[in-house]
Amino acid sequence: MESSPRRVKDKGYYMENLGNTQFFKVETEQATGVQLVLDSVYEALTEKGYNPVNQIVGYIMSGDPTYITSHKNARSMIMKVERDELVEEILQFYITHKLEGDQ
Fold it and tell me: Do residues 89 and 81 make contact, with C-beta atoms less than 8 angstroms apart?
């Protein structure tokens, strides 16, 4: 008789064999979510008359959400994204469009 993997329900998801390390691969859709957040936050900051670059950098560097306006729910949206994901998205865009685009 072959034993089946032990399944444990945790937060609505079944996890197979808790003795092994699980791997998680981030899909490209997450980057799209980060792009949408950055687009929305940029728009909200611009509409309120702020310099969006300065405000977003202030938020990324400090983690203080008050750098981001609450206009159009921008503050709530940006707080749902990890700051390292924001940096990754911005850096990836720069490398793809500025550095690799020049070649």
Answer: no
In Å, how far are 9, 19, 57 from 22, measured between CA atoms? 15, 9, 34
Residue-by-residue pLDDT tens, the chain, 103 positions: 444 445 545 555 555 666 777 666 655 555 469 999 999 999 999 999 999 999 999 999 999 999 999 999 999 999 999 999 999 999 999 999 988 876 6
Tokens matching residue 92:
């990836």
Tell me the pTM. 0.67
What's phi and psi for 3, nearest 5 deg?
-85, 140
Residue type, 32: T
State CA 10 to chain mean position distance: 24
CA dist 33 and 29 (Å) reads 6
Contact between 86 and 34 under an 8 Å Cβ cutoff? The reply is yes
The answer to whether the beta carbons of residues 85 and 34 sit under 8 Å apart is yes
